[in-house]
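Collaborator request, handled under Task 6.
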Amino acid sequence: MTDPTTSPTTDPTTSPTTGPTAGPRPRVSTRRLMVVGVLVCLFLAGVVSYYASSHPDGLAFVAREKGFAGSAGPHASDGSPFAGYATRGIDNARVSGGVAGIVGGALVFVIAGGLFLAVRRRDRAGSDAEAGTGVAGDHTERDDD
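Structure tokens returned to the collaborator:
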């Protein structure tokens, strides 16, 4: 019988420098990450935002508190369908704010995603032109000997 205090451990699940090792981490696909991220954002914008604050527009709240809210003129977007963190035509404040949040979040996602794709395509085309391929993704070499 060996003394456990004097013999080194040979347990393959631990390492003296890093601790327990669980093997390689599973890879998360970019598509799955994007879908989960978008769903979380839409949930936050559509549901959680209603409970975030009773004063969502800090400037308007402070203007009322300090007494200079009456000096402001009408806002340029007062007639828009989503003015005032609400959706015109929906009387329920919770649903109205949720719809406005979801539409706003989706709009930001579409604009940001479009800009990302435009920059990515331009960057990929530029790097392919420098490499001499001329066509994105068409970089195959053949040995005809």
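The cover message to the collaborator said: "The two ends are 67 Å apart (CA to CA). The beta strands are 14-15, 19-20. Please let us know whether this matches your experimental observations."
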